[in-house]
């Protein structure tokens, strides 16, 4: 098969973060500051990515503003011709840093929103005063005319607040709202029982997003990640393994997706040891689940196999115990009853939030 060049690179600059969100999808074992890539190595990664044909660079974390060299990294990426998107909680940004980032060529900001009021947002984020600081930085972003997307991770504890979330996105001048229902990877799996949306919430969120997208057409665009445990078919995770994007984590390990390190039999290489291009095109880990040849039945003979690529490999491992299995979310999966069981267990219990422990 012909392997396409990646379109997007997610650069997890650091796992350090002032917030402690229970829904964090970063791994349980996070990378410490002492093993983070230095400025020069990150810049080399960006240059390699641009050479490969990558168009979009997502500067992420943890909280990328925890890196003092964020402005230098942004400038280098912009000079390399990459479209730069800063994925941030806003904590650690100041008007002065925003000015410097804008001067460095930052193209877009994606600001997370944990809730629509201080009580809820600060409780979910585990950071007192975070909501007010976030609102202030959202205004600063708007003042500068930087395109803004609000990213709202939605779950059982804030889904009933979706209407207000949408209003806030409009008030803050966001161009897009990402309504991202929680995905259970990494730390978030500890909080499945506390965060799993109910069936009623799942139905309501679809209708609310569809109605708001019609009502606000031309004002606010929507990206919607539905709660897939309630779905009949899985999502095309990462648009298919090794087909559209790659992640580089703080210590330089290159991954096909956020949770790939949970698959124990795969070995992931580092940018310090091999070129990004070699890793993308030639490494066994990136080729393990590329395309459709690796698929078992029922995916192999399914009409949706080039739509969802058999779903999420990490979810297949976590629920079915086999990364090469059909994603158990799929109604055709022999393990689908395990998803039903997980749903019933999770929504039947009220659990306290378990906050992320920072490295
Ligand atoms: Fe997707 Fe496989 Fe289910 Fe078909 S059987 S819908 S390819 S996960
Ligand atoms: Fe790894 Fe979906 S998160 S394939």
From TrEMBL:
Q: Which GO terms describe its molecular function?
A: 4 iron, 4 sulfur cluster binding; cyclase activity; iron ion binding; oxidoreductase activity; S-adenosyl-L-methionine binding
Listed binding positions for [4Fe-4S] cluster are: 17, 21, 24
| EC number, UniProt record | 1.21.98.4
Q: In which pathway does it act?
A: Cofactor biosynthesis; pyrroloquinoline quinone biosynthesis
Q: Where is the Radical SAM core domain?
A: 3-220
Q: Which InterPro entries match?
A: 4Fe4S-binding_SPASM_dom, Aldolase_TIM, Elp3/MiaA/NifB-like_rSAM, MoaA_NifB_PqqE_Fe-S-bd_CS, PQQ_synth_PqqE_bac, PqqE-like, Radical_SAM_PqqE_MftC-like, rSAM
Keywords of this entry: 4Fe-4S, Iron, Iron-sulfur, Metal-binding, Oxidoreductase, PQQ biosynthesis, S-adenosyl-L-methionine
**Sorted alphabetically, which CDD domains does this protein's record hold?**
Radical_SAM (cd01335), SPASM_PqqE (cd21119)
PANTHER family in alphabetical order: PQQA PEPTIDE CYCLASE, RADICAL SAM DOMAIN PROTEIN
Oligomeric state and partners?
A: Interacts with PqqD. The interaction is necessary for activity of PqqE.
Q: Which NCBIfam families match?
A: PQQ_syn_pqqE, rSAM_more_4Fe4S
The text of the family note is: Belongs to the radical SAM superfamily. PqqE family.
- Descriptive protein name: PqqA peptide cyclase
| Gene name in the database record | pqqE
């Amino acid at each position: 098969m012909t392997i396409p060049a990646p379109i997007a690179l997610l650069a997890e600059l650091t796992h350090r973060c002032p917030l402690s969100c229970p829904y964090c999808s970063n791994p349980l074992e996070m990378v410490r500051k002492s093993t983070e890539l230095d400025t020069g190595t990150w810049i080399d990664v960006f240059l390699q990515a641009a050479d490969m044909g990558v168009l979009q660079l997502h500067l992420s974390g943890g909280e990328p503003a925890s890196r003092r060299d964020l402005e230098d990294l942004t400038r280098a990426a912009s000079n390399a011709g990459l479209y730069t998107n800063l994925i941030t909680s806003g904590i650690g940004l100041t008007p002065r840093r925003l000015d410097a980032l804008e001067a460095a060529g930052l193209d877009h900001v994606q600001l997370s929103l944990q809730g629509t009021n201080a009580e809820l947002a600060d409780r979910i984020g585990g950071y007192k005063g975070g909501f007010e600081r976030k609102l202030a930085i959202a205004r600063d972003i708007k003042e500068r005319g930087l395109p803004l997307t609000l990213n709202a991770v939605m779950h059982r504890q804030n889904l009933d607040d979706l209407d207000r979330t949408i209003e806030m996105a409009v008030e803050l001048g966001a161009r897009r709202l990402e309504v991202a229902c929680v995905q259970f990877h990494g730390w978030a799996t500890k909080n499945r029982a506390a965060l799993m949306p109910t069936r009623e919430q799942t139905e309501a969120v679809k209708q609310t997003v569809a109605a708001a997208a019609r009502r606000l057409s031309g004002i606010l665009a929507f990206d919607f990640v539905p709660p897939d445990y309630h779905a009949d078919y899985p999502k095309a995770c990462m648009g298919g393994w090794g087909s559209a994007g790659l992640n580089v984590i703080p210590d330089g390990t290159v991954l096909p997706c956020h949770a790939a390190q949970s698959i124990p039999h795969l070995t992931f290489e580092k940018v310090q040891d091999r070129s990004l291009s070699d890793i993308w095109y030639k490494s066994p880990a990136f080729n393990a689940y590329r395309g459709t040849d690796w698929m078992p039945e029922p995916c192999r003979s399914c009409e949706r196999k080039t739509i969802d690529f058999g779903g999420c490999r990490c979810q297949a491992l976590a629920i079915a115990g086999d990364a090469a299995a059909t994603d158990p979310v799929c109604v055709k999966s022999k393990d689908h009853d395990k998803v039903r069981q997980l749903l019933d267990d999770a929504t039947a219990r009220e659990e306290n939030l378990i906050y992320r422990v920072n490295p």
